Amino acid sequence: MAPDAPEPGTRERVLRLTQAMIARRGNAAVSLVEVAAEAGLSRQTLYLLFGSRSGLLMALVDQIDGASEVPRRLAALRQDLPAADAFE
Questions:
Q1: Average pLDDT over residues 64-80
Q2: pLDDT digit string (tens) for 5-50?
Q3: Geometric angle at alpha carbon 71, from 66 and 76, rounded to 5°
Q4: Distance, CA of 47 to CA of 33 (rounded, Å)
Q5: What is the DSSP string of 24-48?
Q6: Is the CB of residue 67 less than 8 Å from the CB of residue 15?
């Protein structure tokens, strides 16, 4: 592992922390500086892991979608129903 590489599992830990911060704050914005401080990491480490604040938020959405039943249920609907019925 490179000296500046984050520990294994850091990405998932940051995503969990970010989700908890957003849940506590409601609609208030969460900055990379705040996430980094909460995670005990540098802001540069977050950039290494996610590329940007948008990248962090997209990764969080992907993680939530992956844990959700909604994508699976929608896929099943698309297969089982004619398109017009699935749309309704």
A1: 76
A2: 678 889 999 999 999 999 998 767 889 999 999 999 999 999 999 9
A3: 135
A4: 11
A5: HHTTS---HHHHHHHHT--HHHHHH
A6: no
Contacts of 65 (CB under 8 A, 6+ apart): 71
The one-character DSSP state at 9 is T
Read off the pTM.
0.70
What is the C-alpha separation between 37 and 42, in angstroms, rounded? 7
Torsion, Cα 72 11 61 66, to 10 degrees, reads: 0
Tokens 């997209």 found at: 58
Query: How far is the C-alpha of 65 from the C-alpha of 62, rounded, in Å?
Result: 5
